[in-house]
Specification:
The protein is α/β, with parallel strands linked by helices and 407 residues long. Helix content is 29%, strand content 15%. The chain is built from 10 helices and 22 strands. The strands form 5 sheets. Strands 8-11-14-17-19-20 form a 6-stranded mixed sheet. A 5-stranded antiparallel sheet has the order 1-5-3-4-2, with no helix packed on it. Strands 6-9-12-15-18 form a 5-stranded parallel sheet. Helix 3 runs antiparallel to helix 4. The longest helix has 18 residues. It is globular, with a radius of gyration of 24 Å. The relative contact order is 0.13.
Length: 407
């Protein structure tokens, strides 16, 4: 169960009537209102009213995942009403829980040997991607002759994207006891026989170019972005782990941590289209799962809780956006297309299409973006339509502030 986050002002608190509607599950539906029957579009709310009734409530959503206008006010004596008390610091806190997420055993199935459908539309093919990289390298070598030899050895002298990536990773990870030629043979073997890794490399490279405004070209991500390089190195180690070559996979994990300052256990399962921005300080545990099209910023931890063994790490669905310095602990679930604000500590599961912030993290609303990880939008909006950070919303609010949430 997730506890909805309440922002306390000194005198006033208001959840916008335009962004949240709550009604009884047993109450008749309003004429003309359509309800999506899918589990992802219905969240249950449990109220802690004075009568002690813990019956479930339903949040009514439209097909675009927008919260519909609320029902007319009901008396406090009516059953099935969750009240948000204005100006009451101790008002009831609704608990949200997605029905479809009670059994999360199927989340691992989001990691499979296929790309999401939108990856196959309006994106360059493998050959087109490689030609773009070569064109960028030629332009850069002409404009900066000092880099001509470097660009020739890393890109222009190779036959395809995977030969170039293999060369780059082998030289980055090499040390006196594990030579570049040895690493080249290992990485090339994985790229040759594992089609899933090749698909993931292409999806990851496209994701970086599309989502990071600092990325000016595919060649820039391939050559210089440690987040992209660390994830591709992990994919090689994960392929070796699946083959049962555990010592070599763990050796690669150690090299990746030393070179890129990213520690990902080779047994972790990561989907395609992942962008890890800046990457420094990212830690992903052994039994963690990350779905397709996710975005993580620096200093994100997907860790365990306590000393238990077995399945003990977080599970992220598809399209999840995780802000900087977020810590997610334990075998919990972050639902599809959820958003976690920077600096949050997440100890309980977060429903799909939800925004959560705070320490500990609490749900503060529904995301507006279809795929938060692609939009990369981190801010919240208030009534005056002034974009402010999560930290500003949670601290130092002046007297007589009335917030009109628009998540």
């Amino acid at each position: 169960d997730m506890v909805a986050h309440t922002v306390y002002c000194r005198k006033n608190l208001l959840f916008s009537s335009s962004s949240m509607g709550i009604e009884s599950k047993d109450a008749p539906q309003v004429t003309g209102r359509e309800s999506d029957s899918s589990d992802d579009d219905h969240l249950t709310a449990t109220d802690s009213s004075s009568s002690g009734d813990d019956s479930e409530r339903m949040l009514q959503l439209d097909p675009q995942h927008q919260v519909l206008p609320p029902e007319p006010p009901k008396s406090s004596s009516s059953p099935g009403v969750v009240e948000f008390v204005r100006g009451n610091r101790c008002g009831p806190k609704p608990v949200f829980c997605s029905k479809s997420e009670k059994d999360m055993s199927g989340l691992a199935r989001c990691i499979d040997d296929r790309l999401p459908s939108h990856h196959l539309d309006n994106v360059p093919s493998e050959e087109e991607l490689w030609q773009s990289i070569r064109s960028e390298a030629k332009i850069d070598s002409e404009s900066e002759p000092l880099l001509a030899a470097f660009l020739y050895s890393t890109i222009l002298s190779h036959r395809n994207l995977f030969d170039a990536l293999c060369f780059r990773l082998a030289n980055k990870l090499a040390n006196p006891t594990l030579l570049p030629t040895q690493l080249t043979a290992i990485i090339n073997e994985v790229f040759t026989k594992d089609s899933r890794v090749r698909k993931a490399v292409r999806a990851d490279l496209i994701a970086v170019k599309q989502r990071d405004p600092a990325c000016r070209g595919y060649s820039q991500a391939l050559l210089y972005f440690k987040g992209f390089q660390a994830i591709q190195s992990y994919r090689v180690a994960h392929s070796l782990w699946e083959e049962g070559r555990y010592p070599l996979a763990l050796a690669l994990q150690s090299l990746i941590a030393d070179v890129f300052h990213v520690d990902i256990h080779p047994a972790a399962r990561i989907g395609m289209g992942l962008m890890v921005d800046h990457a420094i300080g990212v830690v992903i545990g052994e039994t963690a799962v990350i779905g397709d099209d996710c975005s993580l910023l620096h200093n994100v931890t997907l860790g365990g809780n306590g000393k238990e063994t077995g399945d003990r790490h977080p599970k992220l669905g598809n399209g999840v956006l995780i802000g900087a310095h977020v810590t997610i602990l334990g075998n919990i679930t972050i639902g599809n297309f959820a958003k976690i604000g920077a600096g949050s500590v997440v100890l309980n599961s977060i429903p799909s299409h939800s925004t959560a912030v705070g320490v500990p993290a609490r749900v503060v609303g529904r995301v507006r973006e279809k795929v938060p990880a692609i939009s990369m939008q981190h801010s919240l909006c208030v009534a005056a339509h002034k974009s402010v950070s999560v930290n500003n919303l949670l601290t130092g609010l002046p007297n007589d502030v009335v917030l009109d949430w628009e998540i």
